[in-house]
Amino acid sequence: MHKKVNKHHYVDGRHNETADQSLKDEVKRLKQQVAELEKEHFMFQGLLETIPDLIYFKDRESRFTRISKAMEHRFKYRNKIDNVLGKTDFDMYSEEHARQAYDDEQNIMGSGESMINKEEKETWEDGSVTWASSTKVPLYDKNKDIIGIVGISRDITERKENEAKLKEYRENLEAAKEETDNILANVDEGLFLLDKSLKLGSQYSKELESILFETKLSARPLINILKNKISEKDLDSVNRFLNLLFEEQQDGDMLQELNPLVKTLAQIDGLEKYLTFKFKRIFNKNGNISHLITTVNDVTREVMLSKSLEESRAENKRKMDWMISILNVDPMLLNDFINSAEQELKNAAAGLNDLEDNPSKSEFLDLIYRSVHTIKGNASLLDLDFFAETAHKAENDLSQLKEHQSDREENLNRFKNNFFLLKKIFEELKSLINQISGIHNQFRPRRNQEHKMLIHSLEKLAKRLCGEADKNITLTFKGFDDNHIPYEYKLMIRDILVQMVRNSIIHGIEPSKERLSKGKTESGNIWISVDSDDARFKMTFKDDGQGLNLEALKTKALGSKKWTQTEIDRMNAQQIGEIIFEPGISTVESTDLNAGRGVGMDIIRKKIEEAGGMITFETKTDSFTSFSIELPLKKQEN
């Protein structure tokens, strides 16, 4: 028998089972949501507990409703408040800060717009200041209504302090740079830093460009900048000196004495400048040399003033020496010298003009030789060395002009310069003599005393020449007391005697030891005598020296190419001796202020012959040389 199943009951059972399952699912879902909420709450709570930033919630009245652990700790530490919930910023901060925060929050809640990363200055009740970067956003309920704000603030006090310090540092740096720029723009000397590679730093004074006449000097090697401005020798010295300054073991103070850039001549923009560089070491924090601070000064004016002062001093000393020399010369002899020198300078100037017009004619060169040589001899007689030395330089130029025709123009120009200087000195000498003529006029000698002055001058000349040649002589004069020298021949006789005394001491008289070895007296002798009759003036000049060196004369004659070997071989002793009267013949190997030109005897013979007179000589080896001169006398009118 089958049991009957109630269909309605079956359907209700199934419905109940479905409902139970739905309930279970809902419960499960709710549990999951609760778990999620608990998880989120745990995470949120963990965030509030652990994050170092300050997180807070506020209601519509800006009262704290919840805060993070970090904020809670902060209020306890700063404000000694254990519970801030329900309090506002006015309870913790200054009125100024609290009011600003309140206004910001009310604006957020009123507008719904967030405030992102606003930097807030927090002024506490105790007066201390902190800084925070705050972000505040509106807090909504489930109906999307704003019920407060959520804020997160990060303490940026340290950053703001660092920024303030950095700002102050930058301001100080800018101020320092401005000061440096002002200094570099206005300092009146070149100023720059030099690194170990000897390159200039990025900054330098404006004046440096003016001094060196260059721009864009930064990072350029100093050696390259100075190239073509100073000599290669100085450039090499500068390079070595600067490298030594960077060597730690070298004494910087001692090295300064080696500085090659002190009053150094430089060619800058076609002009000559004198520059002085000074270098001083700069040390880094480790005590090592890092740079050289360098100053450059244009000392051209200083150097030129110094040179001008030195030249002025030298000029004053020169004039004083001249004056002393002039005051030591007898006025009559000085006057004779001026007259003679003036005439010889005119003769030389005329000869120079003729020589330039006819460069191939040597007689004009010989004429100039004779005039300059006469001036030199007469200046030496009066101890006017400053004049004699200049004449000697002019003679040197003439000698070069005669011997080196290939450099004729250069040698001629050199002679012209010295000849111009000789004339300039002569004019200065005349001017100086005019200034002191009053002194001389007070002591002007009588005519009958002139022979004594001539003797005195010749004795002084002999003494000086003997001192230079290390020889001894005795001068003996005869006939001078009777005024036998005619007035018209006075200058000529003086010139002749000057040349002959010079020749005897330089060429003829032997040194004392040599004389003794020859059985002679230790001291040499020169005899000068004058006499006259109704028609002629006569003078004899004799020394007891070695006589004319005939072999040396033959050699010199052959070397002059004026005679051939055959012509010389045919000459007798008298004819060979006559060679001394030819221009350019001298037996002295080297020239100096006293001898060696071979123009002296040429001058003597020419002057004597021009006056209508004659000169003869005798000589004997190791015994003597004598000259006899005769000059016609003018007939006296009744």
Search tags:
rod-shaped; Beta-Lactamase; 18% strand; alpha+beta; five-stranded antiparallel sheet; Four Helix Bundle (Hemerythrin (Met), subunit A); 4 domains
Strand content bin = 15-25%
Q: Which whole number gives the mean pLDDT?
A: 84
Instruction: Tell me the overall shape.
Output: rod-shaped
Strand order of the largest sheet: 2-1-5-4-3
How much helix, percentage-wise, in residues? 40-55%
Number of strands: 15
CATH level 1 class label of the largest domain: Alpha Beta
| Domain unit count | 4
**Largest beta-sheet characterization:** 5 strands, antiparallel
Task: State Rg.
Answer: 58 Å
Tally of separate helices? 21
Query: From the 3D coordinates, which CATH architecture of the largest domain would you assign?
Result: 2-Layer Sandwich
**Strand pairing plus helix content: what structural class?**
alpha+beta
Query: What is the CATH T-level topology of the largest domain?
Result: Heat Shock Protein 90
Give a verbal description of the structure.
- With 638 residues, the protein is an alpha+beta fold.
- The protein has four domains: 46-160, Beta-Lactamase (2-Layer Sandwich), CATH 3.30.450.20; 174-305, PAS domain (Beta-Lactamase), CATH 3.30.450.20; 318-444, HPT domain (Four Helix Bundle (Hemerythrin (Met), subunit A)), CATH 1.20.120.160; 448-632, Histidine kinase-like ATPase, C-terminal domain (Heat Shock Protein 90, 2-Layer Sandwich), CATH 3.30.565.
- The chain is built from 21 helices and 15 strands.
- The chain has helices at 7-50, 69-79, 95-111, 157-186, 206-212, 222-226, 232-245, 252-255, 300-327, 331-357, 362-381, 385-403, 408-435, 437-442, 450-469, 490-508, 512-517, 550-560, 565-569, 573-577, 600-610; strands at residues 54-59, 64-67, 115-123, 129-140, 146-155, 190-194, 200-204, 264-268, 271-283, 289-298, 473-478, 524-532, 536-543, 614-620, 624-632.
- A hairpin with a 5-residue loop joins strand 4 (129-140) and strand 5.
- Helix 15 (450-469) runs parallel beside helix 16 (490-508).
- It is rod-shaped.
